[in-house]
Specification:
Elements: E1 5-6, H1 26-40, H2 43-53, H3 61-71, E2 74-83, E3 86-93, E4 99-106, E5 114-122, H4 135-151, E6 157-163, E7 166-173, E8 175-177, E9 182-183, E10 190-191, H5 197-209, H6 229-234, H7 237-241, H8 253-258, H9 265-272, H10 289-303, H11 307-319, E11 340-341, E12 349-350, E13 366-367, H12 369-380, H13 387-394, E14 398-399, E15 404-405, E16 410-414, E17 417-426, E18 429-436, E19 441-447, H14 453-462
Antiparallel strand pairs: 1-5, 2-3, 3-4, 4-5, 6-7, 6-19, 8-9, 10-13, 11-12, 14-15, 15-16, 16-17, 17-18, 18-19
Helix pairs in contact: 1-2, 4-14, 5-10, 5-11, 9-10, 11-12
């Protein structure tokens, strides 16, 4: 997801000034000292600062230093609120365009130790909008950014920018297998994470268009033997598509315990199907992997095919996606990259021990940048759905805090340009598809490293795309 909780605390805003230096107040001085220690990237010095000024944070120091490596640190951009004991400010990652709202609160007396500190990623404020570039300029900027990120080992993967269906930039970087020294190529298959929610949503809308499913109907009408009838009788298919059904997640201790035993979609229902809703269906938006898992079960029930056969026959083949599928991890797949993760704190490692047995309708599988560009073209030219249902699929419906969620697609305005698509991220994998219909641009970035390896590039490009 795009809204990211940084350092574990949600912040609030009141007043705003244009000040770009930390104020000479107890809270301002502590914020300045903390950010200087964090930005230096020296773990010993950072821990020394925390010991003196914020001992409660020491247990997170190593994680913070990993975050420092990923972001490059933060630069102060604007003070939003300043009192002697509280500071709220806007900061920007040095390694990307990402903004965050930072807050620091301190004790009112004594050494003014820090009592609260946090940051939350936010959309780039309008006051800091970036200039739109020409196509030639964006290609040059994109190439430079990718070269920099690749040399710093913050990006390994492939990127493609197309306009009106024709690539204007495509390049692969880094290694698909570091042990074998196999380079990434444009044909390299990268794991998608949640990106294949787009395929699940298209498949669901195809069945709605064919009159086999009804968006407003509770899914229990079709899955009559679902274990929890309270959920089945209340949660509609539309709510599953928009993450408003309260159906919860599939990841956590139970998933870790049964990871390699979960081989079919029905296996997930057997494990999680007795749960009640997290909230009253339709009352709020909360990202639900299990909701999209259930959509896959519905697709199987109504179509009479396995989920994997259905999307292969009705999406991948019509779109010409020859490098996309979801074979189990224990099967050899040509050109499939190895994912590498730093999660766990043991340096860069293969992500093998985090992967499910097989991708599901909620996420997983693999594709190439060229295949995802073909998917975007097929979608926009109504090869997968008619015009009415394509618009229904991709038009935002529920506010997420950064744009609106449609049916398996995020719909947002980025620096004045509307784009829809979906991202995916998990240990050792990250990807983004951005379809910007007014300008004709489609951007695909896939990486075999931790987030935000691909998301950082996608944001960089979409923030600067030529205006319509």
């Amino acid at each position: 997801m795009k809204i990211i909780l940084l350092f574990g605390f949600l912040l609030f805003v009141t007043t705003c000034t244009a000040q770009t230096t930390y104020p000479d107040t107890p809270a301002g001085n502590q914020a300045k000292g903390l950010m200087e220690a964090f930005n230096a990237g020296d773990a010993a010095k950072y821990k020394e600062f925390l010991t003196r000024n914020y001992p409660d944070r020491l247990q997170n120091a190593d994680r913070d230093m990993g975050f420092r490596e990923m972001t490059g640190g933060f630069d102060l951009k604007q003070i939003e609120e300043s009192t002697p004991t509280k500071l709220v400010a806007l900061v920007q990652e040095r390694a990307s365009d990402q903004f965050a709202r930072l807050t620091v609160e301190v004790q009112p007396d004594g050494q003014h130790q820090i009592t609260k500190f946090g940051a939350m990623a936010i959309p780039r404020p309008a006051a800091f909008a970036l200039p739109h570039l020409s196509e030639a300029e964006i290609i040059t900027a994109m190439r430079t950014k990718l070269d920099e990120e690749s040399k710093a080992d913050r990006f390994s993967g492939a990127a493609l920018l197309a306009r009106n269906g024709k690539p204007v930039f495509s390049q692969a970087y880094g290694l698909a297998d570091r042990e074998k020294k196999t380079p990434n190529q444009l044909k390299t298959r990268f794991r998608l994470g949640s990106m294949n929610k787009m395929f699940t949503a298209v498949a669901t809308l195809q069945l709605v268009q064919a009159g086999k499913l009804d968006l407003k109907t509770p899914f229990g009408k079709y899955l009559t033997d679902y274990p929890n009838q309270d959920v089945a009788s209340k949660v509609t298919i539309e709510q599953l598509l928009t993450h408003t059904g309260g159906t919860g997640d599939i990841f956590g201790p139970e998933f870790e315990k049964h990871r390699l035993e979960l081989k079919t979609l029905q296996d997930y229902v057997t494990l999680y199907g007795k749960r009640g809703p997290d909230f009253e269906p339709g009352s709020q938006w909360r990202y639900s992997n299990y909701g999209f898992l259930l959509l896959g079960v519905l697709i199987e029930k109504v179509s009479g095919q396995s989920y994997y056969d259905y999307v292969r026959d009705h999406i991948f083949k019509p779109a010409g996606m020859t490098g996309t599928d979801s074979e189990p991890e224990d099967q050899a797949v040509s050109d499939r990259s190895v994912g590498y993760t730093k999660f766990g704190g043991n340096g860069l490692q293969r992500n093998t021990d985090t992967l499910p047995y097989r991708g599901t309708s909620a996420g997983g599988g693999y594709s190439t940048v060229e295949d995802l560009s073909r998917f975007a073209t097929a979608l926009q030219t109504n090869k997968l759905l008619n015009a009415q249902y394509t618009e229904l699929l991709t038009t935002g419906k529920v506010d997420t805090g950064r744009g609106k969620y449609a049916f398996g697609f995020q719909d947002e305005v980025i620096n004045g340009t509307r784009c829809f698509g979906h991202g995916g991220g998990a240990p050792g994998m990250n990807g983004e598809l951005k379809i910007c219909p007014a300008s004709g641009y489609v951007l695909v970035v896939l990486a075999n490293l931790d987030p935000p390896a691909a998301s950082r590039i996608a944001d960089f490009v979409t923030n600067r795309l030529p205006a319509k």
